[in-house]
């Protein structure tokens, strides 16, 4: 089932961006493999809650950013790179995540 596969990708994410209750989008970025961050999971309502729970269980940082979560949810599908006009906002989120996790990823 596609939902199960999506949920299995969440531990590999770098961050889950949320609108507190309705939306969650998990992103992964590896500069050595990707041009831009990729959506590994996304959901709304119950699925968003499960994404956040799985992220918490695996130590994936969750950040609340209502407009970014909504834009990513509306404009991407699983496996998509983020849209170019959202790259700056996502880059700032990832930079913060890497800082709090105490690691630096190359760009």
UniProtKB/TrEMBL annotation:
SUPFAM superfamilies: EscU C-terminal domain-like. Gene3D superfamilies: secretion proteins EscU. Pfam families: Bac_export_2 (PF01312). This is Flagellar biosynthesis protein FlhB. The lineage of its organism: Bacteria, Bacillati, Bacillota, Bacilli, Bacillales.
């Amino acid at each position: 089932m596609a939902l199960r596969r999506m949920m299995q990708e969440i531990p590999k994410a770098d961050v889950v961006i949320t609108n507190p209750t309705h939306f969650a989008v998990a992103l992964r970025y590896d500069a050595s493999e990707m041009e831009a961050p990729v959506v590994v999971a996304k959901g709304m309502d119950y699925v968003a809650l499960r994404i956040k729970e799985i992220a918490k269980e695996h130590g994936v940082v969750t950040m609340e950013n209502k407009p970014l979560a909504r834009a990513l949810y509306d404009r991407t599908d699983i496996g998509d790179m983020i849209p170019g006009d959202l790259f700056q906002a996502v880059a700032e989120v990832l930079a913060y995540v890497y800082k709090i996790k105490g690691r630096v990823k190359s760009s």
